[in-house]
Amino acid sequence: xxxxxxxxxxxxxxxxxxxxxxxxxxxxxxxxxxxxxxxxxxxxxxxxxxxxxxxxxxxxxxxxxxxxxxxxxxxxxxxxxxxxxxxxxxxxxxxxxxxxxxxxxxxxxxxxxxxxxxxxxxxxxxxxxxxxxxxxxxxxxxxxxxxxxxxxxxxxxxxxxxxxxxxxxxxxxxxxxxxxxxxxxxxxxxxxxxxxxxxxxxxxxxxxxxxxxxxxxxxxxxxxxxxxxxxxxxxxxxxxxxxxxxxx
Length: 248
Prior knowledge:
The chain is built from 7 helices and 8 strands. By secondary structure, the protein is an alpha/beta fold.
């Protein structure tokens, strides 16, 4: 992906946005969602594959087909690794990594529920080094869900510095240290976002210097598992707005 120059929070300059998909439901459950991702012109930065709270116990033919289709369109497919805020044993994570690489040939990883404090930084640094050793050039997205200790910026290709509700997002602010980094270092995931506030949310992402977003009208209260597992009702409009550079 190209590097973008971002502005400091509070300045008005353009940020070219794209979509990062944190993990749709299984392709058998969400076939429309996976098909939409291969539509020409969809502004995707990456798509995370979460087979069964990880890579599963064996290669899944439906997931293999979905990954192949995405790879053919040039989209980065990332393996979903749950760090459980730093409590998962290192050998368990590396086992999942090998399965993702051997079975699905992923190009990187979304480190979901990544810790954000300085005490956990050495452990995440060790894991990141191992991942890049196993997958040269691996794209690593650290899924903190909030602003982490600035030291994590030395590890990540990208950090999820917001993951939460629209009610919280519309009043959120970027921390000052983020101004030293380009926009493609940051991702925002927002659920419960009404259609009528799409353009406002895109402006917030641009203003805070985040180049990758995933917005959905689904909520944690209504949905059984995760608000990210299905298409938002306004997917076509979101793709169109990003494609037209409405946030700029």
